[in-house]
């Protein structure tokens, strides 16, 4: 089988909405496979390439912004509303999303809707467990210990997920 670039393949069929949709359906069904001719060779290179790790940097930025908004909201009152929004996204989505990405690193294993539903569901399951564990520590269930533990959990699992995605990329 002859290798061809995606651009050549699309141009050979003609650039129209119908043909682009057919190419998309061919990729989804597995008739054609799109392969990066220069995949990252190291984990650091994988992290540096936004086409592979943009999801990771977005998630880590969300965690960092949430932590910053919690500490800035005591100084700047308008940041309080941003704290509510970012904190809700962290607690209700990001914790579960990092867990889902670590458990299912292959993109084709779950649809986008399944990833969203599992992310919310796992967040609703993991966050109370973290709270339960914190309850039996000297720190207890207060804002700072909860924030630190959820931020660390989300960040560490996101890095594990990125590593698993990198290893999966190296196998294929």
Question: What layout of secondary structure does this protein have?
Answer:
Layout: H1 6-13, H2 17-29, H3 43-48, H4 50-72, H5 79-103, H6 112-135, H7 143-171
Helix pairs in contact: 4-5, 4-7, 5-6, 5-7, 6-7
Q: End-to-end span in angstroms?
A: 17 Å
Biggest sheet architecture: none
* SSE ordering: HHHHHHH
Q: Low-confidence parts lasting 5 or more residues at pLDDT below 50?
A: none
- Which descriptor suits the 3D outline? elongated
Strand runs, count: 0
Domains (count): 2
Helix content: over 70%
- Structural category is mainly alpha
Strand content: under 5%
- Give the overall average pLDDT: 91
What is the CA-atom radius of gyration, in angstroms? 20 Å
Describe the protein's architecture and organization.
This protein is an all-alpha fold and 172 residues long. The model has no long low-confidence stretch (mean pLDDT 91). The chain has two domains: 1-35, no CATH class; 43-171, no CATH class. Helix 6 (112-135) crosses helix 7. It has seven helices and no strands. The radius of gyration is 20 Å and the shape is elongated.
Tag the structure with descriptive keywords.
elongated; mainly alpha; 2 domains; 172 residues
Describe, in short, the structure shown:
With 172 residues, the chain is mainly alpha-helical.
